[in-house]
Amino acid sequence: MIFQENATLKQKLEILSDAAKYDVACTSSGVERKGKKGQIGNSVASGICHSFAADGRCISLLKILFTNECIYNCKYCINRCTNDVPRATFTPEEVCTLTIEFYRRNYIEGLFLSSGIIESPDYTMELICRTLHDLRRLYRFNGYVHCKAIPGASPELIEEAGWYADRMSINLELPTAQGLRELAPNKNRKTILTPMRQIQNGMAESRAELGMKGGNQSAYWYTQKRLGRALPGADIAAIGEKTNSNVKGLPQQGIIRADGTGLVRENPQAENSLSVKNASTALSQWKHRDTSRGFVPSGQSTQMIIGAAGESDYEIMAVTEALYQKFDLKRVFYSAFINVNQDANLPALRGQPPLRREHRLYQADFLLRYYGFRAEELLSEKRPFFNTYLDPKCDWALGHLEHFPVEINTAGFDVLLRVPGIGTKSAKRIVEARKSGSLDYHALKAIGVVMKRAIYFITCNGRMMYHFLKIDEDYITRNLLENDKDVMKDFGEKVTYKQLSLFDDYAEGG
Question: What span, in angstroms and rounded, lies between the C-alpha atoms of 9 and 76?
């Protein structure tokens, strides 16, 4: 290790903002711009990143690690203890100074604070809690704070951080428990899921006592409530009659019920050992805390590294679904694996990191949270990977052409959501517009429907947009990919679209 014992604050900032770039909970801007005459403000690249609020606002955050020293040896991590990289550690006073001075200069609106593990999880978490305490109490900072909880830290420290932070997150690291054992031997599922459950229960208690100051529930929870599916924390008695019913026109879903430990599903693989018993109470410091902000009012999230342990897309989506169901997460973030250590236990990448795969997982994640899809609808054990050249919704529709075409003027809201090219906003607009009369294709385009995808799956007043359109998988796939320049990019320059003949020698070299 290369310790920067006499590093200046700027040198520490350069080291610890660079060390935080692999956390994808928010995106680095990488912009450095000096001030100009006649203009106000400038931009500094180190540590400035962007996050997005629930209402779509872009928020600039100071994104740093408290320290990149670490006692753990996770094989995929650039900050593992066996790597010879420059090391630095902030003091709580330095983090507070940076945050306030950047805020005063209008560089940032908040702080994203993560950390390696120095000495022990409790020692590291105690330093983070002291930083958040000083920032809120001594410096009177009322901006946004996203704090990473340290797996294995004591519940008292997790709760203390939750009273100061707006959002908290604990990285799941890898989708499968086996991958975690092989690549992160110092970590285990229990130390990750226990604080995740504590934060979830703390938010629920805060909501019950303080109303919305405890934060509202996730988009996934509201979607499941709309569809009448019971989840932990839902009013099961109120929607119990709807639990096993299916939406007209959609495939039958698995049976769901709730017990004392959380969700029980027909498909046990989707659980993937994501089970932690509920504690009797998660918040014990009510009398000693300022409750005006509530406990973790912006909810919690997590992150998974994709492609480091050989897991399939089906396994990833099954784990994601279980996390949303059992822990009421706001977001699950996916980070395409980058082999920064060249370790023999890590897969060798051919070319660039799997960014297209990461993109498809994010699209499928939206289908789970907002569209009411299930992981087993999108993928299965027999078909465990997404088609990277088609978005998951189009891919699902092409595999379920028996549900199409959908009549725009009569289909229900949840059926409309299954149509490629129709999102949640356009589906709401369609339902609202139908009250005034019948809709045609011109009206759909004005509403915001993406017609280049939707025309193959819908009818207006019983008619398709063009008479030559066919409900055929090959025909629709060819047309959807016709203008996609990336489809053949990875197959080499010699590949053409020429039709093979019976006389072509396509087995050269034996």
Answer: 28
**What would the two tokens of residue 252 be?**
């039958």
Say how far apart CA 295 and CA 298 lie, in whole Å: 9
Tokens representing 346 are 């890590």
- Domain span at 212: 169-388
Q: What are phi and psi of 394, to 5 degrees?
A: -65, -40
Q: Structural domain tally of the chain?
A: 3
pTM recorded for the entire structure: 0.83
Give yes or no: residues 321 and 442 share one domain. no
Contact indicator for 387, 476 with CB cutoff of 8 Å = no
Burial class (CB in 10 A: 0-12, 13-18, 19+), 149: buried
Q: What angle do CA 30, 92, 116 make, to 5 degrees?
A: 60
Residues 350 and 404 both lie in one domain: no
Percent of the chain past pLDDT 90, that is, above it, reads 57
In sequence order, which residues have a C-beta less than 8 Å from that of residue 441 and are 6 or more positions away?
451, 455, 460, 465
* Within-domain flag for 503: no
Give residue-wise pLDDT tens across range 263-303.
Answer: 333 344 444 456 655 556 788 888 888 888 899 998 999 99
Q: 127 is written with which tokens?
A: 């330093």
CA distance linking residue 278 with residue 86, whole number of Å:
41
Q: Alpha-carbon distance 432 to 426, whole Å?
A: 10
CB atoms within 10 A of CB 434: 15
- Under 8 Å CB-to-CB from 454, ≥6 apart: which residues? 419, 420, 421, 422, 444
Q: Are 108 and 228 members of one domain? A: no
Contact 62, 26 (CB under 8 A): no
> Is there a contact between 74 and 80 (Cβ–Cβ < 8 Å)?
yes
501 assigned to some structural domain: no
